[in-house]
Amino acid sequence: MWKFIIAAAAAYMLWKMFMGDTKRRKEEAKQERETLIVRGEMVKDPACGAYVSPEDSVHASIEGRTMHFCSYECRDAYIKQLRSGSNGNKG
């Protein structure tokens, strides 16, 4: 019986250590992202509003400007939105 209680306590302590470490890492990553945003090292995806690193982003040259997107889906949706807005203005 004591072995079970000791094993359960050890398992609980290991779980708490792992979960605490995971939580700490998430907080550090969030703080690092916020710092990069404040310093201007990240740019805002015009389609969904997510912040992305210019080096890791999907980019496209649109109307002479380089735009940065978090994914190909956001890039395609933004381009589709621009095209549908342009077509609506012509007719």
Provide a quick synopsis of the model:
This protein has 91 residues and is of the alpha+beta class. Helices cover 62% and strands 15% of the residues.
Share of β-strand residues: 15-25%
So, CATH architecture of the largest domain? Roll
CATH fold type of the largest domain: Ribosomal Protein L24e, Chain: T
Rg from Cα: 23 Å
At the first level of CATH, the class of the largest domain is: Mainly Beta
Molecular shape: elongated
What spatial order of strands do you see in the largest sheet? 1-2
Termini separation (Å)? 81 Å
Describe the structure.
The chain is α+β, with helices and mostly antiparallel strands and 91 residues long. It has two domains: 1-40; 42-91, Ribosomal Protein L24e, Chain: T (Roll), CATH 2.30.170. Helices cover 62% and strands 15% of the residues. The protein has two helices and four strands; from the N terminus they run αββββα. The protein has helices at residues 2-38, 72-90, and strands at 43-44, 51-52, 58-62, 65-69. The strands form two sheets. It has a two-stranded antiparallel ribbon. A two-stranded antiparallel ribbon has the order 3-4. A hairpin with a 2-residue loop joins strand 3 (58-62) and strand 4 (65-69). The termini are far apart. The relative contact order is 0.09. The mean pLDDT is 84.
